[in-house]
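Field log, afternoon session.

UNIT: design team B
ACTIVITY: writing a sequence onto a fixed backbone
BACKBONE:
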């Protein structure tokens, strides 16, 4: 392909495998809050101790060590609580390992770029695909020191990974560092301490199929009564039989409440988590459960009614509808969002934009949305883009991970499939082949709109360019039709070419006479024939 990298084949993204809903525990009494705080502090201390032991085991972990840790926790809590704590510990350790691998990959990308640029002569110009040499001896010197620092950091992280060491902070490393910047975070020491302790609490329980209402530790009845199995040292706080404490409030999930009620009525597993939002002073209960693995729709079935190609940008989605032949239909659509402000605001903006996109897809009648399989792991390093800080902030702000998770889960509820495509060259080729031809005085085509068409065509299995080269001979039946056009069984495939709409109408006078005789054809394109291979400039069905 002339130096271009090989493109990955499009695929249908697997649907979500779990559901989580949340509701507020309103009007808790002081006694309720006192018990919840005591349970959270006690079990949080056990979780911290278990995480310390798991990190000390490193790669020497086995089922025997897991069972040993669970046996040590059982007398201080219960068998079910000990199982929930050890499982959460393993999930947290595995997440730290994945983050460690991603950090190594980022360091390797920066080291590779620095070595390449340092090997070039000073002042060597760069290209579109690779940066050039540094502009001065001083910059070259500072970057050489930067390379040494990255190599030392990379060697330390690799040594930690090989030894099985991870750095984990219960409560979050960001919140821990906030302790040193209280003025900037607009927090007092007491406010930070309250938030820190609340984040380190542990009031959660895994579901158990076959048990009453799907959970023996935190039980929620169909009428909304919430009761908690207290750990052994706190059994004196119980107000119900068998060492349980029943809250005075009632809860009801407004979202997916019917699905949740069906599960607990059938005694199917439901996991619960209780946490305190210290900023608002509110307690919440989160219920989650797994869904059976659903077979994804075959790629050909997802393409049957066309797709909507979506180009993801830092402040909007650029979407274009395409029929199954790859022809753009209608006008481009843009769905804007604002990613400034708090995390809750950014999350709400993403959900609102995706909701509008999915609703439009349902109105169009398509069954699939095509999106790029983006990953900016190696693109966000300052070694690659140098002083282009605003560009690095731009690509860092694109919500790739959260966007894919949100879009897959929300589309699955509406019966839509998500087709992921290789993101290579979509903006470049889209602008080259589609931006100018589709632009009219009344329609302004941007580079992002054209990229949406390129993404959709790649998901449909068509080349990005509008049409391929004509047959090499003088007759189409000798060499066949163009490769990028409608299938043999499609209606209108061999029809005549529609009249041009950007020229004056070719009307015949009412008396049936012409003002002048038609001119003789002097080109192959104008010559009459029974089968016409010439296609319209923007469609592939004629």
């Amino acid at each position: 392909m002339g130096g271009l990298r090989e493109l990955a084949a499009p695929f249908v993204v697997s649907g979500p495998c779990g559901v989580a809903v949340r509701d507020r525990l309103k009007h808790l009494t002081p006694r309720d809050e006192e018990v919840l705080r005591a349970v959270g502090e006690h079990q949080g201390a056990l979780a911290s101790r278990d995480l310390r032991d798991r990190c000390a085991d490193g790669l020497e972990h086995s089922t025997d060590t897991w069972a040993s840790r669970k046996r040590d926790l059982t007398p201080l809590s219960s068998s079910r609580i000990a199982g929930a704590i050890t499982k959460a510990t393993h999930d947290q350790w595995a997440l730290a390992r994945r983050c460690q691998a991603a950090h190594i990959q980022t360091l390797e990308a920066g080291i590779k770029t620095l070595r390449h640029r340092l090997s070039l002569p000073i002042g060597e110009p760069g290209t579109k695909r690779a940066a050039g040499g540094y502009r001065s001896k001083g910059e070259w010197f500072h970057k050489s020191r930067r390379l040494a620092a990255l190599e030392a950091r990379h060697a330390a992280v690799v040594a930690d990974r090989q030894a099985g060491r991870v750095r984990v902070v219960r409560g979050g490393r960001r919140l821990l560092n906030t302790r040193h910047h209280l003025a900037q975070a607009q927090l007092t020491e007491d406010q930070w301490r309250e938030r820190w302790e609340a984040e380190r609490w542990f009031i959660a329980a895994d579901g158990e199929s076959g048990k009453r209402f799907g959970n023996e530790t935190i039980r929620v009845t169909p009428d909304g009564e919430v009761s908690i199995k207290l750990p052994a040292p706190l059994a004196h706080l119980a107000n119900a039989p068998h060492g349980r404490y029943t809250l005075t409030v009632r809860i009801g999930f407004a979202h997916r409440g019917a699905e949740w009620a069906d599960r607990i009525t059938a005694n199917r597993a439901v996991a619960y988590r209780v946490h305190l939002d210290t900023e608002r002073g509110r307690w919440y209960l989160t219920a989650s459960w797994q869904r059976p693995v659903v077979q994804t729709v075959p790629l050909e079935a997802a393409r049957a009614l066309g797709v909507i190609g979506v180009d993801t940008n830092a402040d909007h989605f650029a979407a274009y509808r395409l029929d199954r032949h790859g022809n753009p239909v209608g006008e481009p659509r843009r769905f804007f969002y604002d990613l400034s402000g708090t995390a809750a605001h950014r999350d709400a903006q993403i959900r609102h934009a995706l909701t509008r996109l999915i609703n439009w897809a349902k109105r169009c009648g398509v069954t699939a949305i095509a999106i790029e399989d983006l990953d900016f792991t190696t693109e966000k390093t300052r070694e690659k883009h140098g002083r282009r800080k605003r560009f690095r902030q731009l690509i860092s702000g694109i919500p790739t991970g959260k966007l894919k998770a949100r879009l897959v889960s929300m589309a699955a509820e509406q019966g839509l499939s998500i087709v992921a495509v290789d993101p290579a060259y979509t903006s470049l080729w889209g602008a080259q082949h589609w931006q100018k031809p589709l632009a009219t005085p009344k329609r302004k085509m941007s580079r992002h709109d054209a990229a949406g068409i390129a993404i959709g065509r790649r998901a449909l299995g068509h080349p990005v360019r509008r049409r391929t080269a004509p047959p090499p001979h003088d007759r189409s039946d000798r060499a066949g039709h163009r490769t990028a056009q409608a299938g043999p069984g499609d209606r209108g495939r061999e029809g005549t070419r529609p009249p041009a709409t950007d020229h004056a109408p070719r009307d015949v006078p009412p008396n049936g006479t012409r003002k002048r005789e038609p001119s003789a054809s002097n080109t192959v394109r104008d010559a009459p024939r029974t089968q016409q291979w010439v296609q319209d400039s923007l469609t592939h069905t004629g």
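LOG NOTE: DSSP finds 16 helices and 13 strands in the chain.
NEXT ACTIVITY: expression trials, pending approval
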